[in-house]
Every structure is written in structure tokens, then in C-alpha cells.
Amino acid sequence: MCRFVFLLLLLLSITSTSFAEENVFEEKDGVAYYHGDPNYPAWSMGNRVGAVADLSSAYIVEENEKWRLIGFMSFPIVLHGMGGMDATIPLEDEWRECWFWQKIKTEEFFFNRDGHAGNKVEGKAFERELNAYRMLLDAAEANMALVGQ
To answer: What is the pLDDT, as a whole number, of residue 89?
Structure first.
């Protein structure tokens, strides 16, 4: 019985240290950056999963007199705890393309829903997304200027 308890305690201590929390985000001016790199802001944080954007990949997909569609690459990250900034599993191999809309006249941002502008991004709950969308828009405009479009 003593060996069983010892073995159980040993396994628990090994398991808990192998999944130790790692704070992979650094906050600067209200924006959380992946490993402190200003090219990788966190743009979405839920209870258990977040997302990191790549500013260098941002581009303007389409634009007309009313709307602008911005695309960028992102990867998910599994978070430890309820909305905590300590990540346990960065899923860098699961890059995906994401989009959001900007209404040109009002400069408001909207979520992408099935290729169309969805709900308006607003309020304190979406502050992180709004900051990231502004950064992504600036990066998209700069990236498009670099390629001469």
C-alpha cells in the first residue's frame, strides 16, 4: 500500500510539473503580444482558447465605397484557466486565415459572417479585438503599399 501511495504521488508531481503554466503573453499599452513580439498581438481570448494574429500577413481583400474586408493569418492557443494569459499549448501548426470588415464611412469594425459583415465589434468585452483590428488595418495598408497596390 505504501508503494502504491508513493507511486501515485510521484506520478502526480511529474504530471503537474510537465503541464506547468507558461506566461507567453506580454502586455504593452493594453495589447497582449505573443512572447512580447509586436508582430503577434492576441486578437481573441475566450475562456479556454485564444488567437494570435500575424500583422505581417494582413492585407486588404476587397474594398468598395462602403466596406473594406481585411484578411490575416492567425493561430489558436489553448489557455490555462478561465480567460487567463497563461498558455499551455500554442497551436502554431494550425494557422488559418481570418477576416473582418470595416465600414468606411464610420470606421467601425464588424465580424465576418459567411463572407458578409456580421455583428458590430463594440464594447468593453471586445476591447482586445478592437485594438488588434486597428493594428491589423494599419498593417494591411502598410503591406499593400509595400507591394504597390
So the answer is: 67
Output the 3-class SS for 23-35: ECEEEECCEEEEC
- Report residues of the chain scoring pLDDT below 50: 4-21
Query: Can you give the residue ranges of every domain in the chain?
Result: 22-146
Q: Which of 104, 106, 103, 107 is nearest to 117 (CA)?
A: 103
What distances in angstroms separate CA 33 from CA 43, 51, 66, 104, one per listed residue? 9, 11, 31, 27
Determine whether 133 is exposed, middle or buried from the number of CB atoms within 10 Å of its CB (0-12, 13-18, 19+). Answer: buried
Closest CA to 53 of 149, 119, 122, 137: 137
Helix, strand or coil, per DSSP, at residue 11: helix
Q: How many CA atoms lie within 13 A of 139 on its CB side?
A: 21
Whether 73 and 54 have beta carbons less than 8 Å apart is answered as yes
Whether this prediction's pTM lies above 0.85 is answered by no
CB 100 within 8 A of CB 121: yes
